[in-house]
Amino acid sequence: MRKLPPLNAVRAFEVAARHVSFTKAAAELNVTHGAVSRQVALLEEWLGVSLFHRAPSQLTLTEAGRGYLNEVSAVFDRLVTASMYVMQQAAPIVLRVNAPPTFTMRWLIARLSVFQRKRPDVEVRLTTSLTPPNFQENSYDMAIRGQYGPLDDCRSIPFMTEIIAPVCHVDLRETLRLDRPQDLEAHTLISYATEPYEWSAWLEAVGVPGLKPANTLSFEQMYFAFQAASEGLGLAMVPLFLAIDEILAGRLCVPFGPLGVQRRTYYANSAPTSKAHTLTSDFCDWLQREGRDTEQSITAWAASEGWTL
Predict the structure, then answer these.
(1) What family name appears in the similarity comment (predicted)?
(2) Cβ atoms within 10 Å of 303's Cβ, excluding its own
(3) Any idea what the Cα angle at residue 191 is, between residues 287 and 304, rounded to 5°?
């Protein structure tokens, strides 16, 4: 059976020895000067040695006190390390990220394993929403949104340019004429309730504001509109970073090239007072690297088509 010294007394000694002052030790421990003195005396009695030389105006450690301080400090350091390890095992570091649904499904999740290999200690919890970020009413640490500028009262970090253009299945371009905007009169235009760039705005930008398509399809979410375009049901106005993989694979195409494209920026927003500041910074650094890689893929593809985006 271990014969342990009185642990409160050991703690009082360690603080007093570190400061070489009972008064400063009392302030750190939030007790009285007399309480520290009594605890140290109790430890000295238990050990059978003097740990301090006490003079009216000076307190110094004895040789035994210096040696005991070195050992005790090392024990406390190991205790802190062991405790932190157990706490981290019991409660993983969590980063709560909120992002738009289609962005999350088609871009973020596909790349998230790269971040998790870099930070295996972090558990990323994803939720989806399209509403403006509200860190007071919601429990997430970061909100990713497509925006035209940084948000007020947020730490907004840009990480990727969103280029929005009409896309369709390659079969549509091969079976029906689709060389100029006027050709859309023979096609189906797919829209969705949350689209950041409406067909009416694009048609006006390319000089055919009154064009009437052969048909229209409407969905609630971008994801369904994107899927409909992938299945050859018509043309949808979507961000190219969501379509680039299927474009490079030869399944989707951008029939009008850079004509009438619109740009926004994707930002990672966090509260300026967030306790997870270091963690959100690491996540933002990773987002910026992934965003640059995606933009480079789009730029290289556009250059191969002879376009400048």
Answers:
(1) Belongs to the LysR transcriptional regulatory family.
(2) 11
(3) 55
* CATH number given to 7-90: 1.10.10.10
Radius of gyration, alpha carbons of the chain: 32
The tens digit of pLDDT for each residue in 191-217 reads: 999 988 999 999 999 999 989 999 999
Q: b/e string for 218-254 if b means 16 or more Cβ within 10 A?
A: ebebbbbbbebbbeebbbbbbbbbbbbebbeeeebbb
Residues of the chain with CATH 1.10.10.10: 7-90
Long-range CB contact pairs, 284-291, < 8 A, 24+: 284/157, 284/159, 286/114, 286/115, 286/118, 287/144, 287/157, 287/159, 287/160, 288/157, 288/159, 290/111, 290/114, 290/159, 290/160, 291/159, 291/160, 291/161, 291/266
User: pTM of the full predicted structure?
Assistant: 0.69
According to CATH, the topology of domain 95-309 is D-Maltodextrin-Binding Protein; domain 2 (3.40.190)
Tell me: the pLDDT tens digits for 119-177?
A: 888 999 999 999 999 888 888 999 999 999 999 888 999 999 999 999 999 999 888 88
Band the pLDDT of 88: cuts 50, 70, 90: low
Beta bridge partners of 164: 239, 262
Neighbouring C-beta atoms of residue 96, cutoff 10 Å: 17
Nearest to 18 by CA among 78, 66, 82: 66
For residue 4, what are the CA distances in angstroms to 9, 44, 81, 100? Answer: 11, 14, 21, 57
Longest dimension (CA), the chain: 101
